[in-house]
Design a protein that fits this description.
8 helices; five-stranded mixed sheet; alpha+beta; 427 residues
Length: 427
């Protein structure tokens, strides 16, 4: 398998892996560094891989990224598919912090009409949202009591498609990507709660970007030049062409960090943390924990949360912000369920990564990206397209498609609460 290598400093290469049909083969670092000086490398095809696998072969180079704030922290752009003894294939270069290894197109190329692919995820591998829960992770002593309280709030909320910008039906989290040509907005928080971390910041935001239609009116923008994610809650006014953008409260976090420390959701995560995107569901694989909203919380919080939301009138066994629920079903058990494949994709993420509580309101449910990230630019809502492709039922009274999460699972007997040390990576 012949790969043409991108222009990277040989000594900056920290590891190299060949990925074929999801099988990973490690390559000798010295050999790859030597090949980088000449611009190409030939890799012997593993004996278990058929000769026709060339097009699905990806050579992944992990390079040192320098200071997180420096432009050098961004991955080098990958070249087009290679030619030669491989009739396809590609080379991916990852900094190790800006998305899934081998995921193309990658960081720096996202824009209007070019949203991140399904394999991409925000934040570093050390983010609690990107930590897979180990099989032997400890369970809190009152796990079942917390689960009972959770399901007592009501059924898990279904996912919806076709609600973009439509008032309270649109409770999603729109995430936009800025470019140097976008107008500059000066951020202004209107609540008098203290020091707003993004007050007065000047941020480039796509001119046609809109907040979600619900009362939370979320809007987040990620600046690929600086690596900063700006999260706004309660957007009130966004003038055309730039100017002062007013909103109730907000915060910021680094997209290559842990995803913590922002302030547009109750638990103070980045708004992109755990949000389910249409591209991910379409890909059939979700490689991060899911953001979970609950009806009310205990008035306390555990890692990774640093603040609470709306406490229950009776806090007994109510989940603290930061609580991590995990589905107890195994992969074979999930695959054997009489539910659609899209639902199995979500359930698998719940089993491997879990759901982390981050806000209050409604009964309980996972967060999804709002379709306004497409419709505000006159594009077809990918959630609607996906729903139609998957033959998801259409609910005529509300004119939306309903991804039914509630039925088909005994939530009360198939959830557990994992100790916070699992999110910290200390147990």
């Amino acid at each position: 398998l012949l790969f043409h290598l991108p222009r990277v400093q040989p000594r900056s290469i920290r590891s190299a892996r060949l990925i074929v049909h999801r099988h990973v083969y490690r390559l000798r670092l010295r050999r790859v560094r030597n090949a980088a000086r000449h611009g190409a490398i030939t890799v012997r095809r593993p004996p278990t891989v058929p000769p026709t696998a060339g097009k699905s072969s990806v050579l992944v180079l992990t390079v040192s990224s320098g200071s997180p704030a420096a432009p050098a922290s961004r991955p080098v752009s990958a070249p087009p598919p290679v030619s030669g003894s491989v009739s396809g294939g590609s080379v991916a270069v990852a900094s190790g912090v800006l998305g899934a290894v081998g995921c193309l197109p990658g960081w720096g190329s996202f824009a209007v009409g070019s949203t991140p692919p399904g394999c991409w995820r925000p934040y570093s591998p050390q983010s609690p949202f990107n930590r897979e829960v180990a099989a032997g992770a400890p369970v809190v002593s009152n796990s079942q009591a917390i689960v009972d309280r959770l399901v007592g709030f009501g059924g898990i909320q279904n996912l919806l498609a076709g609600t973009a910008g439509r008032g309270e039906l649109d409770g999603g989290r729109p995430i936009y990507w800025s470019s140097p040509s976008d107008p500059v907005f000066t951020l202004h928080c209107t609540e008098s709660w203290g020091t707003c971390a993004v007050e007065g910041a000047q941020v480039r935001i796509p001119d046609r970007a809109q907040p979600a239609g619900g009362s939370d009116a979320h809007l987040s923008v990620i600046d690929q030049a600086s690596g900063v994610e700006y999260d706004l809650w309660g957007v009130q006014s966004k003038p055309p062409g730039g100017g002062t953008l007013t909103f109730r409260w907000g915060g910021k976090t680094r997209i290559d960090g842990t995803g913590l420390g922002s302030d547009a959701v109750a638990a103070q995560y980045g708004t992109a943390a755990g949000v389910l995107r249409a591209e991910e569901l379409a890909s059939g694989h979700i490689n991060h924990a899911l953001f979970l909203g609950v009806h009310c919380d205990s008035g306390t919080w555990v890692y990774p949360a640093t603040k609470g939301g709306s406490p229950c009138s009776d806090p007994t066994n109510a989940p603290p912000e930061g609580t991590r629920f995990v589905l107890t079903l195994t992969d074979p058990q999930i695959q054997a369920l009489p539910v659609p494949d899209w639902k199995k994709t979500i359930l698998t993420a719940m089993a491997h990564y879990g759901m982390i509580v981050g806000d209050t309101g409604g009964s309980w449910g996972i967060a999804q990206e709002s379709g306004v990230v497409y419709t505000s630019f006159g594009q077809t809502d990918k959630w609607v397209t996906l729903a139609q492709q998957l033959h998801v039922p259409y609910y005529a009274p509300d004119q939306d498609y309903v991804f039914n999460l509630n039925t088909g699972i005994d939530w009360q007997h198939n959830l557990k609460v994992i100790a916070p040390c699992a999110s910290q990576g200390t147990c």
